[in-house]
Amino acid sequence: MNKRFASPLFAGFLAAGLLLSSVHAQDKQPIDRIAAVVDEDVILKTELDRAVANILSQYAGRSEQLPPRDVLERQVLERLILLKIQVAQAQGTGVRVTDQEVDQAIGSIAQSNKLSIDQLRQQLARDGSSYTDFRTSIRDELLVQRLRQRFAQTRVSVSDAEIDAALKAQANTGTQYHLAHILIALPEGATPEQIATAQKKVDGVKTLIAKGEMDFNAAAVRYSDSPNALEGGDLGWRSLDEIPAAFGEMMKSMKAGEVTDPIRGPSGFQLLKLVEVRDASQSGPQMVTQYHARHVLVRINDTTTEAQAKAKAETLRARIAGGAKFEDVVKESSEDLGTQGKGGDLGWFTQDEFGPEFGGAVAALADNEVSQPIHTTAGYHIVQRLGTRQSDVADQSKRAQVQETIGRRKLEEEWNRFLREKRGEAYVDFRVGKAADASQPGTETTVPAKPAGG
Q: What catalytic reaction does the record list (predicted)?
């Protein structure tokens, strides 16, 4: 796998191969084909080729696990189509990402790889990628993240009753299951013939795995229709409350390494593999240090640059040092509307609750001490630490964890359903591959390739 730029943000679009490439040929501007039309946008053939090349580099030495080239191109093209749909949906519903936020994300990627921004530019150029396209990819990734967050806030809720029920079910077990899956998808309103074809395919895949002719990960890469197919179908670690009840009962009776028989679900037929099992139960008190603090926030946005925000925060800090009441400065100047009416009071929190920069700065203060400006992704903060305490958060932590896992499961189900709906509604015109051959035999559309730059 290409790990040149290792960061959680970058890994998302690197795995999907979303870096674009530009090719130069002496004095002639090259011609770039259209791979697919997606509503009012297009995916260029160079985008698809670059994405496929990234996948091939990840599987260097293991290329036999990959499907045939035409199938791989279809899988990657579908990922690119979904990305276009999500970005368009985000923009159409008012989701915005500022230039400063893109700069901060790129700065984090460069820093995590021990590079300056100039060095990052140079590395991209050596890899044949333009910095402008790199920024676009980062912006798209941030837009999709924001869209998903907004979706979660409006579509996903977890009640106290659900948390209580999950805690009761977990009372005698802390078992977690590492799962992987293969999905043979069915369209909405599938015909009997489509269902029969999918059933035959999933049975054939199960037979290959059962006979040892192909391991599960390789079968997922080659045959699964799931978005995580190219990751071997890996679903990660899940507790019982993160697994649909019908599947959870199966997991209890399975051993590590076993694969279920085909299961019919809302998306199609699935094969589930139990990779590993572990005991994640916690007993006894869970003592942590908590801090009580209040803050003034100066945000960085389209109208306030980082330098301006820092200068304003330094002025506010000087006012407090000169005798101004902290709560008065909060009321007049803080841009955190959630705490402004409470004098900036953040309540009790753990060091990692508001991010490493904020938490580290608070931990370094003495009680009643006022900090210098603290830079975080939200902007610049002036913080006064009011006190510390040791607290047993075992019950609180467990409840919060259960709420998060239930919410994550619900979000995954709702988000996948949402993406299927949007994919079904989108106008998609394939210009390469078998789908294009079937609908437009002998045709080929070209457009001028974008020049490298940035």
A: [protein]-peptidylproline (omega=180) = [protein]-peptidylproline (omega=0)
Note the pLDDT of residue 173.
Answer: 59
Domains, in order of start, for the chain: 8-156+428-448 (1.10.4030.10), 174-280 (3.10.50.40), 287-392 (3.10.50.40)
**pLDDT 10s digits, 48-104:** 988 888 888 878 877 777 888 888 898 899 999 999 999 999 999 888 888 888 998
Would the pTM of this model clear 0.90, i.e. be above it? Answer: no
Please tell me the distance from the alpha carbon of residue 194 to that of residue 249, in angstroms, as a whole number. Answer: 29
